[in-house]
Write a structure and sequence with these properties.
The protein contains eleven helices and nine strands. By secondary structure, the chain is α/β, with parallel strands linked by helices. Strands 6-5-4-7-8-9 form a six-stranded mixed beta sheet, sandwiched between helices. Strand 5 and strand 6 form a beta hairpin. The mean pLDDT is 90. It comes from Gordonia asplenii. This is VWA domain-containing protein.
Length: 286
């Protein structure tokens, strides 16, 4: 890590972190600097580790806000009580207005009708492949995916679960326990990589998580190259999901394309870390 070309630029002295230099470097070259920061968040120097860990989640979240949509699903105008906001619908409110004036009083706001944009509820389950190595670029990509999913879920009034998997699946953000965006990113940045790869175990866990969702639209987002090493065919579990979206590294996407073709999933290939929010928005568009 210390041999990285930009390490001394970010940490000029032992235990020090130049926050201004970090922000400038992330703005200049996020695909190089965010993976380096992910590594630095595990530095053996406790003071440097603490400083990096306090800064990285916010940097990742700021980058994850990018994208043309930012919310899930298309909005519709719906009638709501006027005390909940929206634009007053005079035609729909006339009966209440007339009744109030007949009673010799002004109509209350909750008696009037307004029109407001509402988005359909959506439940997301993000599956993060942590088998093998979970360093640098892989860790930064996972954190970016967690931030992007959490932001878009929150903005759309949806539900979110995050599952990390290798041979087994581990729920790190349960669907039933709402978690802030910062906390979700911190949880992912703390992941360690190891073990075999069971896509089937991950997909079955996603189905279990989404079974308790209130939302009608239930989406599983799989962040993986989809290379199976446990000899269990994941296709039946993939087909059992309402909606499966796969994001695979562009340099190793053959297995992901194969899974998508056999299961009816949609797949996108990720070449640059900063493209992940846009790719996620494209996949989530109805």
């Amino acid at each position: 890590m210390a041999r990285h070309a930009r390490f001394s630029e970010l940490s000029p002295e032992v235990g020090e972190l130049d926050v201004d230099a970090v922000r400038e470097a992330v703005a200049d070259d996020p695909d190089t600097v965010l993976p380096l920061l992910a590594l630095m968040s595990r530095a053996t120097d406790p003071e440097l580790r603490r400083k990096v860990q306090s800064l990285v989640p916010r940097l990742v979240i700021d980058r994850a806000r990018a994208g043309p949509h930012g919310k899930i699903g298309s909005g519709r105008l719906r009638p709501v009580p006027a005390d909940r906001g929206g634009d007053l619908d005079l035609d729909s409110s006339m009966e209440s207005v007339a009744a109030a004036y007949a009673a010799g009083r002004s109509p209350r706001l909750d008696e009037l009708v307004a029109s407001a944009w509402q988005r359909p509820g959506t439940a997301l389950c993000l599956l993060i492949d942590r088998s093998g190595s979970m360093e640098g670029a892989q860790l930064a990509t996972a954190a970016m995916a967690a931030a992007a999913c959490a932001l878009r879920s929150n903005q759309s009034g949806g539900e979110l679960s995050i599952v990390a998997f290798d041979r087994r699946a581990e729920v790190i953000v349960p669907l039933t326990a709402p978690t802030g965006v910062d906390k979700a990113v911190e949880q992912v940045l703390g992941l360690r990589g190891h073990g075999m790869t069971s896509i089937d175990a991950a997909l079955r866990c996603a189905r279990e998580q989404l079974a308790g969702a209130r939302a009608k639209r239930r989406i599983t987002v799989l962040l993986s190259d989809c290379r199976v090493t446990d000899d269990v065919d994941p296709v039946p579990s993939a087909r059992a999901l309402d909606e499966l979206l796969v994001i695979a590294p562009a340099a190793d996407a053959d297995a992901a394309r194969g899974l998508a073709a056999e299961s009816g999933a949609r797949v996108a290939e990720l070449d640059r870390l900063v493209d992940l929010p846009r790719i996620l928005d494209d996949l989530l568009a109805p």
